[in-house]
Amino acid sequence: MSNTASGKNLRINGERLWQSLMEMAKIGATEKGGVCRLALTDLDRQGRDLFVRWCKEAGCTVSVDRMGNIFARRPGRDNSLPPIGTGSHLDSQPTGGKFDGVYGVLAGLEVIRTLNDMNYETAAPVEVVVWTNEEGSRFAPAMVASGVFAGVFDEEYGLTRKDLDGKTMGEELQRIGYAGDLPVGGRKFGAFFEAHIEQGPILEAEQKTIGIVQGAQGQRWYEITMTGQEAHAGPTPMRRRKDALLGASRIVHEVNRIGLAHQPYACATVGLMQVSPNSRNTIPGKVFFTVDFRHPDDATLSKMDAELRACASRIAEEIGLQLQLEQIWYSPPVAFDKACVSAVQSGAETLGYENMPIISGAGHDSCYIARVAPTAMVFVPCADGISHNEVESATPRDIAAGCNVLLQAMIARANA
Ligand code: GLV
Ligand code: MN
Ligand code: MN
Ligand code: MN
C-alpha cells in the first residue's frame, strides 16, 4: 500500500483547494467579497468546525490545546518521528480577505488530501495546525497563541488578553468550545512550513510565482492614551484648551514622518483610535490609539522607538496633556532555518516556478514557531499587493503553485 518513491511526481488538486477556499470564505462573507471572521467569535467557531470536519473526513486525528490551537495529524510510517507541521490561521481582520491565513491552513489540508489520494506514506507524520488569533485585531497582540506555544508568552498572559469590550480570550475559547485540554507547547516538529499570500506588491511586480521567504521584519506595537480636558466647543477659547485629539493627531503625523525617515524599509501606522467623548461640540478629553512600527533591522526599530517616545512627550507637554505610552508588543526580526528555506527553494525549482528570495513584511505564526522548530514560508503573489482588505485576491494558478511547493518541501522533510 505504501508508495515509497521520492514524491517528486505528486501534484495537489488545485481545483479542490480553490473550492475549499471559496467554501470557507462563505463563513463571515462580507458584501464587498471579503471576510469578517474575528478571532473566537461564532463565525470563527464555524470556520474551525468546518476545518475539523474536513480533517476528520481526510482520516486525521484532531486535537486542541488550551489556547485553542488545533492539530490535525496524518500518521507516517514511523510515528515516533516528530511530525512535519504546516498551517496558519482562520481568523481575519474586520474587513479581511479570503486568503490571509486561510490559504496556509487549507493548503496544509490539501497536502494531506493529496497524500491520501496517492496512498503516499511519509516516514514522519504530517500535521496541519490552526493557530488561534494570529491577527491581533480583536485581541492584541498578534500571533498570541503561536507565541504561547513557542514560549514567548505564558499561558496566563494568552488567556487573559482582552478585546475592547473586556472579554478575555480564555472566556471566549470556552464559549465557542475550543478551550482544549492539551498543554500548550512542548510538541516537537521536525520542520514547520507556512504558505501565505505575500500581502505586498513585490512578487507581482517581479513576475515571480513563488517567494522563498528568508525571514520577517521586526515589529513594535504601542498603546497610547492622551488625556486633556473635556470642555464646551463654543465658550472655550482656543488658547485655554487641552485637546487630546489635537495631541493624538500631531503624533499620527510624527509616526508617518518617522516611517518616512527610515526608508527604504520602515513601516509606521496608526490604525485604531477611540476619541472620548466623541461628540461634535465637546473638546475631546481623552484619546486612545495604537502605533504599529516595523523594520527588518532591529537597531533601526529601536531608533524609531526612541523617536516616538521623544516626540510624544514633547507634544503632550506643548498642549498640556497627560501621556501614557506603553509598548505592548515587540517581535524581533526573524531569520528562517536555512535547510527549510532550501527545501522550499528546491520545491520551486523542481516544479519549474519562477521564484525569488523575499522578506516578509507581515507578521506570521511562523515567526514564533521558528523559535522552537526549523521553519520556513512559501509566498505567492496577491493582486496589486493588497491585503487586510476585502478586495484581497490571488489567482487559482498561483494558489495551486504555492501548495505544490509546500507539498514538495514537506515530503522532502518528512522523508529526510
Ligand atoms: C497581522 O496580520 C500582521 O501581520 O499584522
Ligand atoms: Mn496572515
Ligand atoms: Mn493578517
Ligand atoms: Mn499577519
UniProtKB/TrEMBL annotation:
Per UniProt, Zn(2+) 1 binds at: H89, D100, H196
InterPro entries annotated for this entry? Amidase_Cbmase (IPR010158), Bact_exopeptidase_dim_dom (IPR036264), Peptidase_M20 (IPR002933), Peptidase_M20_dimer (IPR011650)
Which NCBIfam families does the record cross-reference, listed alphabetically?
A: hydantase (TIGR01879), PRK09290.1-3 (NF006769), PRK09290.1-5 (NF006771), PRK12891.1 (NF009527)
Which one Pfam family would you cite for this protein? Peptidase_M20
Which cofactors go with this protein? Answer: Zn(2+)
Recorded superkingdom: Bacteria
Cofactor binding mode and count: Binds 2 Zn(2+) ions per subunit.
Q: Where is this region: Disordered?
A: 74-95
Query: What is the protein's name according to its record?
Result: N-carbamoyl-L-amino-acid hydrolase
Recite the UniProt keywords alphabetically.
Answer: Hydrolase, Metal-binding, Zinc
Similarity annotation: Belongs to the peptidase M20 family.
